[in-house]
Amino acid sequence: MGKRETAFLTSFWNSILERINETSKFLQSETIDLGTAVALLKSLLEFLTLQRHNFEQYNEQVNNFCSKTIDFEEKRARPPKRKADDSGEPAIVLTDRDKFKIDTFYAIVDTIVADLSQRIQVYSEVDRRCSFLYGDSSSTKTTESIKSFVEFIQLM
Fold this sequence. Notes:
Shape: elongated
Radius of gyration: 23 Å
């Protein structure tokens, strides 16, 4: 692999997509109920959230793909445009590694986590309202679920 970024993203996406694929296989089971599906999605969310702290791990795995001498691609730094109210302090200049970490790695992880969180929120609400369909009919949770479902239907 010619670029460190390519090797890094290959390692990162391989890890992420393997876990998503395994979760997806379980979600497609014919016998899975919504409560279990929500738990699986929450587990996936936790895994993805933890990936934000694994930048160094993926960076080390890159050494298996390419030599340690290949570094993150250097891009020409543009001087920031100064405005009248700017202080005289010099602008913060990030290394190429830190730019990649912030602009690419964190952006990917944060986007995936945000999107999955939204989906989990919706599925959790549906599960809360419809858990009476697969719960113990004598429990108070089932009674609350039925009441929530009836209230929802009346609002429609």
